[in-house]
């Protein structure tokens, strides 16, 4: 994992970190839309700030840094969890690790059934690792989206690495029709919480830190950037 980061001067600087910039850096797609939203804010976008403030543990949160396409290593296999944005923030008393998944029309990747069907030597180890991080003992439905598991785990992993008390996983969606929100709601049910749009809800102690999740609707003007 690299330790040196170079500040972005504009949203276009974010494109260099994508696996395939020509394919993913396009108007109306999540990578470009998310970059313009956060770069313009130079802090938390207002809708993110409001969603965080809805949670008593996260009120008054101040952004310290945000890293585009931040990779978090996971046990099992060689592929890390690549966060669209990972942010470190603080309240008056605590540090907070935030993993942000940007969405427009893109799905959350394979379901658990599809992911497990592909087969891999490291998948059993990775799934066991994710279960431990998320404190999941129950059977996982095959329709749960794998991306939501490892993205949430990455927030917890980085919380422990930086000594943060809280971890947050936010879906920052710019979809006018809220595409794929049912997948998020199913994931929230797995964590035994009832999700609410434009709010962050607490999901208990997971991996030794306080976990919170939220679905936040982004400003649709950035779909045209």
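-> sequence recovered:
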């Amino acid at each position: 994992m690299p330790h040196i980061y170079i500040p972005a001067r504009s949203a276009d600087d974010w494109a260099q970190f994508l696996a395939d910039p020509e394919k993913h850096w396009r108007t109306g797609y999540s990578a470009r839309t998310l970059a313009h939203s956060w770069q313009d804010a130079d802090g938390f976008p207002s809708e993110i700030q409001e969603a965080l403030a809805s949670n008593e543990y996260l009120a008054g949160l101040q952004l310290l840094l945000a890293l585009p396409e931040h990779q978090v290593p996971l046990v099992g296999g060689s592929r890390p969890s690549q966060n669209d944005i990972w942010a470190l923030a603080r309240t008056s008393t605590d540090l907070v690790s935030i993993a942000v998944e940007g969405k427009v029309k893109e799905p959350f990747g394979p379901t658990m059934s599809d992911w497990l069907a592909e087969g891999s030597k490291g998948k059993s180890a990775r799934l066991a690792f994710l279960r431990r991080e998320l404190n999941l003992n129950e059977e996982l439905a095959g329709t749960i989206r794998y991306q939501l598991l490892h993205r949430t785990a990455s927030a917890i992993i980085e919380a422990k690495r930086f000594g943060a008390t809280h971890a947050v996983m936010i879906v920052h969606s710019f979809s006018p029709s809220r595409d794929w929100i049912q997948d998020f709601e199913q994931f929230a049910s797995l964590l035994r919480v009832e999700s609410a749009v434009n709010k962050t809800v607490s999901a208990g102690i997971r991996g030794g830190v306080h976990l919170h999740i939220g679905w936040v609707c982004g400003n649709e003007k950035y779909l045209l950037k």
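The chain has a mean pLDDT of 95.
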